Amino acid sequence: xxxxxxxxxxxxGYLGILLLMVIxxxxxxxxxxxIMPSAGFAASRGDMNLALVVLMGxxxxxxGTLPLYYLGRAFGEERLVAWADKYGKWLTLSGKDIRKADxxxxxxxxxxxxxxxMVPGIRSLLxxxxxxxxxxxxxxLIYSAIGSAMWASVLAGAGYMLGENYDKxxxxxxxxxxxxxxxxxxxxxxxxxxxxxxxxxxx
Length: 203
What we know:
By secondary structure, this protein is mostly helical. The protein has 8 helices and no strands.
């Protein structure tokens, strides 16, 4: 995949970075941890400008958030609440839980979007709850852009400094993303177990 990413950037230049980052947000298996360090390496060779690399990476990342954001808007809180009330018992999930989660996102959504854009594994998925909670698009784009710019800067800068060893960035970041996903899975499992215990105690 690294060779394909490099070839696309070599042939399309800055547009290739933008396109790859859009795709990365819609299809997470194409990691930004590979795209941006590769572009940073190209900048270290003098083939690209580092500031433009970060700019195009940020723009592509922000544009890539829009499909899932609009999918969340289209699905909406009310549809999700109705679905949870009808089928959620299998997951110990109710419409009330969905509304609580939506209220939480209304209060903390800006921080979630800002910092979540720098967390591998969940950075793309945050667009869905942002859309479902009807976070205003301008606010969503601003915080997505800030978070994405910081993430793109770190990755491109690492690739710039590491030079030909830019591919090591992905190896450094991969364990972090696995830890984050593991923590989220454990947290979800604990929440479900507590829900079941409280329901059993109440019945």
